[in-house]
Specification:
Length: 251
């Protein structure tokens, strides 16, 4: 580690109370729906989950593990967010809406990470040691995503909603799907727009259908098979299905 990196680490250290104050006001920089400090008190369980974690984590490190676990349990009951007091969470981490978030014992979440509701940073091993994910700084974990095992989500990377990540995600990348696939690499300016994420299953079905169509044409040309009547019937059935789906959407 260089002297510059050591100095940056020293500069990043702040007092416990200053940390709590910083956590309390993180939503102001992350949530445009915030209109007053009063809303912070009653409408941001993610903020309280982080603050309760800070308290339980400090007690856990000082050896008061039972008390830390009790506080963690009470926080879980009040915020519907389960953060193990031994987990490592950096500064300015924001858990948006928070409901259903689980952060395991050996998970590491670095600075300025954004986590949406329903996210799991879970383990897949029953062995002692590091078994939960590491999320590097400025990463975004979409709602409902499951990040499992001792893997790393790289700096500035994004995980799409409801994705299941079981392998490392490089820095400045975007991962989506079940299991998650890397769809963008080394893209520092990539923004996670959940309404613009590709549907991997749709693309795969589209590929398979086009491949079948190519094979059908090849068979027709080679063997002189006439399946025009069946083709026409299939097209009619497909059109009826699409029209029925469109009529449902309009209701």
């Amino acid at each position: 580690m260089t002297n510059k990196e050591k100095n940056e680490q020293v500069e990043e250290k702040i007092s416990f109370w200053a940390q709590l104050k910083e956590d309390f006001f993180v939503p102001k920089n992350n949530d445009p729906a915030l209109n007053s400090n009063l809303e912070l008190m009653f409408n941001y369980p993610g903020v309280w989950a982080i603050i309760n974690y800070r308290i339980s984590n400090k007690l856990y490190k000082k050896g008061f593990k039972r008390i830390a676990r009790v506080i963690s349990g009470i926080s879980n009951f009040l915020t519907s967010t389960d953060i193990h007091p031994c987990a490592t969470i950096g500064r300015r981490v924001f858990i948006d809406h928070a409901i259903g978030v689980v952060i395991g014992e050996t998970a590491i979440v670095e600075d300025d990470v954004l986590i949406y509701q329903g996210v799991t940073l879970g383990g897949v091993s029953l062995n002692k040691g590091k078994r939960h994910p590491t999320v590097k700084s400025n990463a975004v974990i979409g709602s409902g995503a499951k990040v499992l095992g001792n893997i790393t989500i790289g700096k500035n990377s994004k995980v799409g909603a409801n994705s299941v990540v079981v392998c490392d995600v490089p820095k400045n990348s975007t991962a989506v799907g079940v299991p998650a696939k890397i769809i963008k690499r080394d893209n520092k300016n990539c923004k996670l727009a959940h309404d613009d994420l590709p549907d991997i299953n749709k693309e795969m079905f589209k590929y398979l259908l086009e491949r079948i169509h190519v094979l059908e044409i090849a068979l027709k040309e080679q063997d002189g098979i006439d399946v025009s009547d069946k083709d026409r019937k299939l097209e009619e059935d497909y059109d009826r299905f699409i029209n029925a789906m469109n009529s449902i959407k309009k209701k």
